[in-house]
Amino acid sequence: xxxxxxxxxxxxxxxxxxxxxxxxxxxxxxxxxxxxxxxxxxxxxxxxxxxxxxxxxxxxxxxxxxxxxxxxxxxxxxxxxxxxxxxx
Length: 88
Prior knowledge:
Largest sheet: 3 strands, antiparallel
Shape: globular
Radius of gyration: 13 Å
Helix content: 40-55%
Distance between the termini: 5 Å
Number of helices: 3
Order of helices and strands: EEEHHH
């Protein structure tokens, strides 16, 4: 997987949001907001190819969570990013 070109994460007042840059991007009808752990993952894989396993390993290294929780969180995040059209 890879985050699509033209999307940037920005932090505004402690909120992490994803915005599209350029006129050829997705037509947003809502703002995509990321929590702290999702923002951490985004920062670590932007401009790189990655797998769900890569994301799980990043969570396990950074946060005190079980592998089961990390896998569930990553699965949910990947599904949401795909539905929003942010990753290939």
